[in-house]
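can u pls check wat happens w/ glutathione
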Amino acid sequence: MTKLKLSFLFLSVMSLAIFVACSAETETITKEVEVIKEVMVEAKSTLKTVQDRGTLKCGVNDNLTGFGVLTSGGTFEGFDIDYCKAVAAAILGDASKVEYVPLTASARFEALSSGEIDMLVRNTTWTASRDRDLGNDFTATTFYDGQGMMVYADSGYKTIEDMNGSTVCVLQGTTTELNLDDRFTSAGLDYTPLTFETNDPLQAAFEEKRCDGWTTDKSGLASKRAEFPASAGGPDSLVVLAETLSKEPLGPLTRDNDSNFYDVVQWVVFGLIQAEESGITSANVSSMAANPTDPGMARLLGVAFGDGKVADFSFGVDPTFIQNAISAVGNYGEIYERHLTPLGLTRSGSLNALWTNGGLIYAPPFR
Ligand SMILES: N[C@@H](CCC(=O)N[C@@H](CS)C(=O)NCC(=O)O)C(=O)O
């Protein structure tokens, strides 16, 4: 729906609301307002588009092992990819109904706002300007990250302060590029950024030692370090400096004013976290659904507890949507273990531990 039509509908709602205040026909008009509101929501919902189309268009990374990568076998894999699968399983009952759209860092927001994709899950940091100016809605944080600096072990650099006068390789259109400037400029350090649109030429420049440091999210550095080719020195030739330059909360995002779809994506994220907290896994979810041990578990899995009713939270999808997502990809811990543990990203003691273990991974109540 165009902005003009939306404004017209909004004005219609407003004038009806004013009329309500002055009229005896309050009840009828209140109903009309409700209908108009429903039409507005319905007309804009990506949820309906996905249901009608039968596939989910997910904007992803195809070049970041652990988060999103196109494998040599032609399949997409990774932590972010599993959220595409989980949402497809929740809405369509089938995790394979995803159309993956690989996007560079610079192209990702336009792809979402133009409608080319339904949701974006591409190691993307939640920031104020991306939320407001770019018209996105961040659903939840799936990975708490921070920016790091990777250098050659034999470079002698131990801290950012040692890097005065250095050249740093960085990707365009990222928070990384902006934080790098904040950090060096505020400390009065001289540096030259060498910027790239995609990772491969960046890595080539780093291997050729055209830059002294490579900066991005620490998870990204862990991924690139783990795969650093032996011909260029292998992983042991590189170190990531201890300093964390920024906060990089990563997670899926949807378009602004698309709350039916936004809610489903957000509660799928929360559902997979709650599943871990409740001890529900891809292996035991069917038996837990057949025999839930408590009412909270029954609500989460969309089944009745004893003789009670099935709790339907009216998300516009089957009440078993979280159950379907868990069956497809497992709980939060399983997803983490599958994709991020192999990169050496230790979860225990980090922000990405469950809140019950001292971390920030927390789901609001399913009630
Ligand atoms: N989280 C940051 C950085 C995202 C980013 O693009 N990171 C790089 C390095 S981890 C990446 O995904 N590179 C893969 C590529 O563009 O080929 C942001 O949202 O701006």
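The first strand starts at residue 56 and ends at 60.
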